């Protein structure tokens, strides 16, 4: 059986956790909270790791996920156009264009505990200090710093969960962890608009900062690397508390970017760009559509947005669990999401989409598939990464996705402002998603990194 390496692709846990296997020139890996020879407790601790990673994901993205829900009070308080509102969403995603690449390198060299914990702490500090912001420009600057901190949370949490779960349960685990983002969004949609209306948008930043601080503390104090983590072989002595990984710092950029030529990576790249655009569209236009087109009041509109985020959380878990059992491979659920999103967006462009009840159903449908896609997608991404490069692969593909996350919200906002309606925006998203579905479906639903289905083993 292949030995586990710290790439996010563990084999089934072994029955020994003794540190005697460490070579004389290696620094010992961070130990799991279990006595030598006791495998039951480390196996149970993976669920603690999953819970901590999920909460940290939700807490770090809490405020940013709530910006769309605060669209109406923000527009009134700061006199914003729809495109300016879109820029607020883009600001928090701009730095990760580079930050995700840097985070990927750090995660391949150092313990996720410190990389993720410090990143979440930066998010908290930026939001708390941002409560002193004086206007729109200051808020944009605050969100830029928030994006820098959040750059480590997304790939770091994914890698930490992938390293604790074997392929038979990894999809479900990744889905649960990724559900943290829409769950945080659901809570933000319910809380932040009320805070912004009652106490002002600056008070909403304070709430977001305190929530992020909670996530940073939990991950820093509770996360441990898995007991089967390999001994590391640093060229020089590591800094205390950090465990350098097997990454060669002299590797060329061109060689690293070559992984995007892998068929599985290409599918993931294009499908991720299409679906993250849909997610961004829901975030920036959803609240405004419900308010302007269906004439839903603030209370019912917020309830629909909460339902969208909850549906997204359920989708990430259910679709990822399906990918664990799909004999066609992990990419099959992603293809289903692409098709379902196209159908939902097309209906949203028709007169039927103007009905409050129909719009609520359609947005919930789009939440399940247009947000839920991330569960099986990120599990497939972690398994498709080259050995020893899981952190870099996660950071690279997520960084490319950030292009859409940065460009799409203001572009859709501008499209809405110039056409004075939402039909063109929904139609554009439907068209790009349909093209992606047709292009990636031709390459098949399986792919490298898909775990074997029959006769698979589980780790307890």
Automatic annotation (TrEMBL):
One function term, GO molecular function aspect: transmembrane transporter activity
UniProt feature, compositional bias: Low complexity: 10-36
Keywords: Membrane, Transmembrane, Transmembrane helix
Subcellular location per the Swiss-Prot or TrEMBL entry: Cell membrane
Residue intervals passing through the bilayer: 47-67, 87-107, 114-130, 136-153, 179-199, 205-223, 268-290, 302-322, 334-352, 358-379, 391-412, 424-441
The Major facilitator superfamily (MFS) profile domain, residue ranges: 49-442
Keyword Transmembrane helix: yes
Gene3D superfamilies in the cross-refs: MFS general substrate transporter like domains (1.20.1250.20)
Major location (coarse): membrane
Annotated spans, Disordered: 1-37
Membrane topology: Multi-pass membrane protein
GO cellular component, one term: plasma membrane
Keyword Transmembrane helix listed: yes
Domain of life: Bacteria
InterPro entries in the cross-refs: MFS (IPR011701), MFS-Transporter (IPR052952), MFS_dom (IPR020846), MFS_trans_sf (IPR036259)
Protein name (record): MFS transporter
